[in-house]
Amino acid sequence: MKRSFLLSTAVVFGLLFTACKKNSDSNPSVTQPGVSYQLVASNTSYAMAKTAASADIVWTTAMANPDVVKFDATQGNVQIEYRSTNNAQIDLLSPVALTFGAFTLPSGTYDNISLKIDLDRNGSVPTLQLNGQFTTATVSLPVSVQVLESVELQTEQHNVTITNDSAYLAVTTIDLPTITSGITTAMLLDAQLTAGTIVISSDSNHDLYKLIVDNLRNKHHYCEFEGHRH
Fold first, then answer.
1. What global pTM score does this model have?
2. Rounded CA gap, 151 and 82, in Å?
3. Bridge partners of 100?
4. According to DSSP H, which parts of the chain are helical?
5. Contact, 137 vs 180, CB < 8 A?
6. Strand partners, 222
7. What are the C-alpha distances in Å from 113 to residues 94, 196, 218?
8. Secondary structure of the chain: what % helix, strand, coil (to 5)?
9. Which among 71, 73, 72 is positioned nearest to 101, based on CA atoms?
10. Is the pLDDT of residue 33 over 80?
11. Cα 168 versus chain centre, distance
12. Rounded CA gap, 188 and 54, in Å?
């Protein structure tokens, strides 16, 4: 495996694909490099922000619903856009990450790359669902995060060269401590309980919910773009 560059941002059902510019070479013998995506979570167990009492959170479930993947870039003076859609929920903690959003991309050098993954609810399936356990020296409570509004994960990169002899995989990592940044032990101890669970949603503990959604949208998400030679 050859790691070509870093970006800062499964089986697919019902894949759709559009592009503002397609490869002008109509020779079917020319192989174009494929690009696909994975979305995973990291750091499932971590200590909370320090207060008078030490505490930690251990996440046991992390599910996301990537709805649309967008690849925007310039090649020369031409603006290029590729999109794909997905309606399968993804287990972010799966030991074998699933792949979505596959499409072919003409070889060449790309600039001003914007890679976006739109997370959105699918019927009753949440945009993002986290389940875990919040524990201090004196209490242990289940915690559930339910995000139902759309969230866009975005990253940018410049001067990337893609060649015909490789397939490419963009692996985006959601760092779980990052998306709960700003939430302290005291906040969780004061949180409203629903049937003994700290439920964080638009209808419950809304201040904590807003912090999580803002972190998802605005915090740095790490993405490694890997090239695999054929």
1. 0.79
2. 19
3. 37
4. 176-179, 185-189, 206-218
5. no
6. 173
7. 28, 46, 18
8. 10, 55, 35
9. 71
10. no
11. 17
12. 12
Question: What percent of the chain has pLDDT above 90?
Answer: 44
- Distance from C-alpha of 69 to C-alpha of 64, rounded to nearest angstrom: 13
Q: Is the pLDDT of residue 164 over 60?
A: yes
Residue 132 amino acid letter: G
**pLDDT tens-place string over residues 121-149:** 998 899 999 999 999 989 999 999 999 99
Cα–Cα distance, 55 to 134 (Å, whole number): 7
Burial of 66 (0-12, 13-18, 19+ CB in 10 A): buried
Q: Considering all CA atoms of the chain, what is the largest pairwise distance in Å, rounded to the nearest integer?
A: 69
- Cα 188 to the center of its chain, rounded Å: 25
CB atoms within 10 A of CB 161: 11
- 15: amino acid identity, one letter: L
Q: Distance of CA 226 to CAs 4, 22, 87, 157, Å?
A: 6, 23, 24, 14
Q: Dig out the tokens for 134 from the structure.
A: 């919040």
Which residue in this structure is represented by tokens 């090239």? 227
Strands 100-104 and 78-85: what pairing?
unpaired
Rounded to whole angstroms, how far apart are CA atoms 52 and 155?
37
What span, in angstroms and rounded, lies between the C-alpha atoms of 170 and 6? 9
